[in-house]
Amino acid sequence: MPLIYEINIEANISIAADFEEWLDSYTQRVLREPGFLRADRYQRNPHDENQSPQMKLWTIHYTLKDRRSYEQYVKGLSIAMRQEAKERFGDQYKATRRLLGLQLSRVKE
Fold it and tell me: Are 58 and 44 within 8 A, CB to CB?
């Protein structure tokens, strides 16, 4: 059963260009992991979320083949990538993550 691994990122506008470049590389590395099928990245508007205009916001949805793929990623590459981001960007960004499971329905017009 496919899953969605969602990452929500808030980055200070002063590092946004560098962070986005790093994020492109990060996404490509993740997609080489077993079981990762695709990635969709969205830019969110800070105003819509009552955030400072000094922040740049993204959401990434990774589609995974199964939970095993997610668990392997979390025990492996994820640890190294989080450390890399922390060393490179410090406290200039924040990321939250969640796993979305079974699709209950699809709305059609």
Answer: yes
